[in-house]
Design goal:
heterodimer; A: 11 helices; 2 strands; B: alpha/beta; Rossmann fold; four-stranded antiparallel beta sheet
């Protein structure tokens, strides 16, 4: 038997151990993150210049810039947004606000979750088969955007649904009690409250789209294409694929190493900026919802 | 004159019968208090009158429920029209995350009113009726969340009044409030019954005694007894009513 004093001692010790462990683990995460960012930054910052960002790759991608890859990535982001946002958000609204608990709804939800678990390379193959070949879009921004859009759909549906689910039911009841219709309640009360979270989800999905390589591999990405696209049926270069190419199968991997780090840095900065934008917008809309 | 009348009303949540043969009438410009222990069906009964039970899946309703002599569960009754006539105030203050002004204007807007002057007038009038105007007239554009709990509840009352209902349903409107705010709400009920027919659910027997003209006692889904409040509190007929009112169970 331990005395009460010993028990208190023991509890204190356990508390201390638990706290130290948790703190240490989160520190490890932070350290790795900063190490990674710092590593890329230090290796990549040297090649970054206005010229690097705005000129074509030259001499078998061992010098010159990454302009077409940046533009290509932005095209793909824009294309997949145009496709996936409306469909994803509307499906999320349907699932949470309209669909009754039923087999059909559970089925859709399960399928959406499963879809989110499919490896992105499979999306790439599917996109190639459906968009590139069957629908005849060829390797193009259109095919790549649709494939990337499909990839992010489950995430967008899920975030929208979660954002709507977190809206307290008392707001819905209050709205109905004032004679509002279902549609008015969703549009004027539920959506404005859920909007900040929906937007955050959307922007985070942009971050994901901009970094994906596998889905664009067979659907749009060009190995080397030193010109800008003129239509949605053109191929483009894209940052993640360009990074892959010059790191593994470029004409001179050693000489392109610096450019590879520069490309990685640009990619990371784009993702970081979208995340910052997500936070800023959430703050902005959060205030707006409260104010009006 | 009967404002609301129910006859032999039964309500089922799937298999469970929550209301059993309730026959009760509510008079114009009177306050009817529904009292009884938790789970007795009083809130369920209240929600019949603006058809809020419709939102719950698996609810089945039998019997006649009449508002101004009209069956509110008939096929031709538009639910949103009904809810314009029957306003509701909930247990927990639930203003929208909008400005004070927009909260009160909401009911008007969703009912298709766009005229700004008309909305301005009704916002002011409703806030006056709910005795909140003086406290908020200088900050109508501020968020409703900046108000205290008691003020929020009066805002919710103003919001319900803005669409000019004839009946006001109150589901334990003061149970989440402090005593001073509660007193204000009770005073307000006293004022409002001049214009509205009020049905209030309350856990608080003193409150029922203070604010109501008629009291109905519910127990296990049955309407045990109803009468003028004075009579209910001085000489109830049923022993269960007597036990409840004197605090022997609750």
């Amino acid at each position: 038997m331990k005395s009460p004093a010993e028990y208190i001692q023991l509890k204190k010790r356990n508390q201390a151990i638990a706290k130290t462990t948790f703190t240490a683990m989160s520190l490890i995460v932070v350290v790795f993150l900063f190490f990674l960012l710092g590593f890329i930054f230090i290796r990549g910052i040297g090649v970054i210049s206005w010229e690097f960002l705005t000129s074509m790759p030259e001499e078998g991608m061992t010098s010159g810039g990454i302009y077409p890859a940046i533009i290509g990535t932005f095209c793909l982001i824009a294309g997949s947004i145009l496709f996936a946002f409306p469909i994803g958000v509307l499906s999320g609204i349907y699932l949470n606000e309209y669909a009754r608990e039923s087999f059909g709804k559970r089925f859709i939800k399960t399928m959406t979750n499963n879809l989110a678990g499919i490896p992105s390379i499979v999306f790439g193959l599917f996109g190639m088969s459906l968009f590139v070949n069957t629908l005849g879009f060829g390797d193009s921004i259109l095919a790549g955007s649709l494939t990337l859009g499909l990839l992010t759909l489950p995430v967008i549906i899920k975030t929208t649904e979660e954002a709507l689910k977190s809206v307290d039911d008392s707001f819905r009841r209050a709205s109905y009690a004032l004679g509002a219709t279902h549609q008015q309640t969703v549009r004027k009360v539920v959506l404005p409250i859920a909007l900040p979270n929906i937007i955050t989800g959307l922007i985070l999905s942009i971050g994901r789209v901009s970094g994906e390589t596998a889905p664009i591999l067979f659907t749009v990405a060009a190995y080397f294409l030193p010109k800008l696209p003129s239509s949605i049926f053109d191929q483009v270069m894209a940052l993640p694929y360009h990074l892959y190419v010059i790191s593994t199968s470029g004409t001179n991997i050693k000489e392109s190493r610096a450019i590879a780090y520069g490309t990685a840095l640009v990619l990371i900065i784009i993702v970081l900026l979208t995340n910052l934008l997500a936070n800023a917008l959430r703050g902005y809309f959060g205030n707006k919802v409260k104010m009006n | 004159m009967d404002k609301i009348a129910t006859k032999d009303v039964n309500l089922f949540y799937r298999e469970f019968q929550a209301l059993k043969n309730i026959t009760l009438t509510m008079k114009v410009n009177k306050v009817t208090a529904l009292i009884g222990p938790s789970g007795c069906g009083k809130s369920t009964y209240l929600r019949l009158f603006n058809r809020m039970n419709d939102l719950i899946e698996g609810v089945k309703i039998e019997g006649d429920i009449l508002l101004d002599g009209e069956d509110i569960y008939s096929k031709t009754m538009a639910v949103d029209e009904l809810r314009k006539k029957v306003g509701m105030v909930f247990q927990k203050p639930n203003p929208f995350p909008k400005s004070i002004y927009e909260n009160v204007a909401y009911g008007l807007r969703v009912n298709g009113i766009k005229d700004k002057n008309y909305i301005d007038e009704h916002v002011e009038k409703s806030l006056m009726q709910s005795a909140l105007w003086d406290e908020v007239k200088d900050k109508l554009k501020k968020s409703a969340f900046e108000l205290s709990g008691g003020q929020q509840q009066r805002l919710c009352i103003a919001r319900a009044l803005a669409i000019e209902p004839t009946v006001l349903l109150m589901d334990e409107p003061a149970s989440a409030l402090d005593p001073i705010s509660t007193a204000k709400i009770e005073e307000l009920i006293y004022e409002l019954k001049k214009k509205y027919t009020i049905v209030i659910v309350t856990h608080n027997m003193q409150q029922a005694a203070r604010v109501s003209d008629v009291t109905a006692f519910f127990y296990l889904g049955e309407l045990v007894e109803w009468n003028e409040t004075k009579i209910m509190y001085t000489s109830p007929h049923d022993i269960r009513t007597q036990n409840y009112i004197t605090g022997r169970f609750g």
